[in-house]
Amino acid sequence: MLTQSWLDLAFLHWAVDPAEVAPLLPAGTVPDTFDGATYVGLVTFRMHRVGWFALPGVPYLGTFPETNVRLYSVDAQGRRGVVFRSLDASRLIPVAVARTLFRLPYLWSRMTVRHGEDTVTYTSARRWPGPRGAYSRITVRPGEKVVEPTPLEDFLTARWGMHNTFFGRQMYLPNTHPRWPLHRAELLECDENLIRAAGLAAPVGEPVSVLYSPGVAVRFGRPARPGGIPTP
Length: 232
Description:
Layout: E1 2-16, H1 18-21, E2 29-31, E3 38-52, E4 64-75, E5 80-89, H2 92-101, E6 106-115, E7 120-128, E8 135-145, H3 151-157, E9 161-166, E10 169-176, E11 183-192, H4 194-197, E12 209-220
Parallel strand pairs: 5-6
Antiparallel strand pairs: 1-3, 1-12, 2-4, 3-4, 4-5, 6-7, 7-8, 8-11, 9-10, 10-12, 11-12
């Protein structure tokens, strides 16, 4: 149904109490946990050439930086997924379409992704609809390639769908992509208030996981109603 590539990704994660995030999840889902904790993720990257069905990806409107705040969910059918609390993007038309047609919490922001000699810096400053002034500035230095992800790294990145509420009904949108090419990364700078703006407590301390990926090509299938096939 939908094709795109996710490039130059930085994954930052903090552990949170499942009771804190449970009220923020769609009906029919609960926090997905690892060793008793769930996680809030701050994931920033370049969206590249979003396309519909078998059509070629759009080069300008379908290519833009994005930063999302996400939580981790599981439903009664065992489908593990993500729940987006906010998705900042730098193209107004895709933001408007995603908000109107898919009821996703996209927000229009000024954004950049810049490569240094051995670093990647991501910046975001929200424009509309708000809260205006929500921002992030993240710099990572990619390091060693991950040959075999730890169980936690697999839990945080091996997600094959999204839970969302669409016109009052729970929906699961599945996706497929190759296994992530991951690198562990050093976090050099993290100045942000996007997590708090998304309705969560501001994270305390350093993230428990910092990863980088050069990216993957992604395909989204049709939304599945409750009672679908379980996923890993």
